[in-house]
């Protein structure tokens, strides 16, 4: 795995420089000191900013699937990691459930979904950016029998909302935002820091409305999306990270076959190498790929095969009981869960028994299922598995022989029948499993996030993605749009009406590029984005993408009317951004005017000569007095000429409708800013309530655990406890424990965290006092004995030091012995008081007190033990001792000489007090003690 490298500035520690030259003076020293302080402050500030940037540097990629989501994390200096959830799993169910006032996610929500399916919302990604009549939405209710109460949002063009059984209505984006919030929480916990920047995968067939709805859901959840990325593109990027190709070889064409839970997607990409600049006069070779075609079956995923099996089991059980079990949510939820498990087992086994006890009305269900039976039930589905492959090849203009590799992605490809069909279709070519089919898309999204972030340096990979649908634009006068007939799905308009059409982006158009359209016009404009080929769209997707009003043209025309310059030129720049969303990037109106202006032009220059300067000229100005030819003197004149002046007006672009009722052919509306603000407020309140509930539960569980452990401790150490208590103390504590336990399951069941913590603190105070006295029965005698042994050995050590350590004075050794005397006196006195004190009361002395007293003596002894021995007296080559006074005279002489050059530099000397903290520092700085001095 490639490691991400963070761009981190290296902060060097500045050195303090004080000059010793008298000629520099105090001013130089002061300036240098000021510069040094400034550097230190900048270094500290930089270090703080660096620390902050490292926190912001963490990014993530999420493969947001219809059934599961996976998150890959990128932290500076560490490999890419797959985030594990609260159950230590690498993938999490895309479900949110409501259990009373509590929201549940992942496996917990899935469990609730079996018991109470009407409170657990699955497959919620399908509800984004679409209408109730979408076949994918209708299938949830009619074919998959989910007991959801789906509504139509009449103010946003018919978007889907969901009515919970408590009467609360949630928009689809809000439900998805709840799952995003859970993904953010488990990722933050895993990263041990807040992760704000994300890249999110989407199916290639997602419309603009669906993509925008996913972005809105992420925004209101607090997740900042750097970019969306198509699922197969993310998998291709993960493959390219580790790929290596020869630049001289022809590109390798790889087909990605991705069957997930809800859809089948096929993409063909060309992989090659490219030589790019790498610094000054250097080049390097990087891997690069470009997607050349996409195809899909948006309703053919692994869940569709699960449904066939569930329908078969439901039919068999219904015939057994004489009642249609599909109409009963709970047993149908159990059948769906069992069908999924059965299909997974049949991928590796030919046959499996199916057992569901008390499925309905205490009736057990026993049957068996074979792989051949599943293939028979799903025969029409298997016939659809190769159609997207054929379409992808046709779009790319390729044949089977042109494909070099096939990569399998997604959980649905584990079915043996699908692999068999692919192998036959590609004439026996190996089906590649170079990628982890479950995690490749999350890892590719994370790599994309690291590339988009400014905080990482990762391996450079060239990536080109393409649009999924061709997009065009229709322009009409804004005033004419009052006629609703112009907004419908028909392209028929009044022949007298001004209108322009343009095809902007083909289905293979590269994402992130712009295209401009220019025309002469004097009125405000209504701009409608549309899909150019409705036949390519999945069922239920509106042809219209969005409608925008472009204003400011009429105002600009009126303002410039006096100049009689004609109609303004309107230029519209359109962009299909990296999210796959078409938008107006820039709108401008211009008029050109020919104006007469005065300009300064140069004429032919004249030459002049300079002669010898007069004798009276100042000597400093008379250095060059020889005759010489001067440079050309510029001569200018003012003339009039015609120039083109461009008048520019930035135009205003706004969405045509903040609200509108559902209408045939019109796209649904994204969340407005006011709606997003209200949704964020609601979600924050719910998250705050969840956090409070979680804190209460944790405090309650802690109190409950403490009570159990307290009972165990009183029972396990009963004999020792009797030695340090009176019966009333134990009885009082046991009574408190029992009363608290009773309160916990009755009145205290809904208490808040603060009350739980207070009760536990009160109980802990009583229990800890007893257990501490029990512990001291054993620990205190040991501590006293250790202290006495230390005192004895230290006395012997001082005797030895009188001979071996002349650097330690008699007074200092006397100080040590005095401290030992004080220690022994304190031990004798305190031990006597302790023996006289009642055992059930707080002890006079503890083992910790003894250790602290001993440590204070030890520190003093260690400082003395590390004092170096005096250096031996040096002698000259004749063996004669150097005269100490002479050396002192020489030193004094040198010092007096240096007084002449000394500068007055004020410095602050560190003040060291005779405290234990100073002793600690001295211990660290002095050289190590001899081993024989260690105790």
Ends apart, CA distance between termini: 51 Å
Q: Which CATH architecture of the largest domain would you pick?
A: 2-Layer Sandwich
**Total DSSP helices:** 22
| Beta-strand content estimate | 15-25%
Overall SS class: alpha+beta
User: Could you name the CATH topology of the largest domain?
Assistant: Nucleotidyltransferase, domain 5
The CATH class of the largest domain is identified as Alpha Beta
Indicate the topology.
Blueprint lengths: L4 E2 L18 H32 L2 E6 L3 E7 L6 E2 L9 E2 L2 E4 L2 E4 H10 L4 E2 L13 H8 L7 E4 L5 E5 L5 E3 H20 L5 E6 L5 H14 L2 E7 H11 L10 E8 L4 E14 L5 E15 L4 H20 L7 H18 L4 E10 L2 E8 H7 L1 H5 L3 H10 L8 E5 L6 H10 L5 E2 L7 H13 L3 E2 L3 E4 L6 E7 L21 E7 L8 E7 L4 E7 L12 E8 L1 H7 L9 E8 L5 E25 L2 E2 L17 E2 L3 E18 L1 E4 L17 H44 L1 H7 L2 H18 L8 H52 L5 H27 L10 H19 L18 H15 L17 H10 L10
Parallel strand pairs: 2-12, 12-13, 14-19, 16-22, 19-20
Antiparallel strand pairs: 1-21, 2-3, 3-4, 3-5, 6-7, 6-8, 9-10, 10-11, 14-15, 15-16, 17-18, 23-24, 23-26, 25-28, 26-27, 27-33, 28-29, 29-32, 30-31
Describe the structure.
With 935 residues, this protein is of the alpha+beta class. It folds into five domains: 5-56, no CATH class; 59-300 and 385-464, 2-Layer Sandwich (Nucleotidyltransferase, domain 5), CATH 3.30.420; 302-383, Actin, Chain A, domain 4 (Alpha-Beta Complex), CATH 3.90.640.10; 471-600 and 638-659, Sandwich (Substrate Binding Domain Of DNAk, Chain A, domain 1), CATH 2.60.34; 672-876 and 909-935, no CATH class. It is built from 22 helices and 33 strands. Strands 2, 3, 4, 5, 12 and 13 form a six-stranded mixed sheet that branches. Strand 12 (197-202), helix 5 and strand 13 form a beta-alpha-beta unit. Helix 20 packs across helix 22 (916-925). The radius of gyration is 42 Å and the shape is extended. The two termini are 51 Å apart. Residues 1-31, 40-55, 485-489, 610-617, 619-623 and 884-935 have low confidence and may be disordered. Residues 832-842, 868-897, 922-935 have a biased composition (Basic and acidic residues). Residues 617-635, 898-907 have a biased composition (Acidic residues). GO terms for molecular function: ATP binding; ATP-dependent protein folding chaperone. One of its GO terms (biological process) is endoplasmic reticulum unfolded protein response. Residues 608-647, 828-850, 868-935 are annotated as: Disordered.
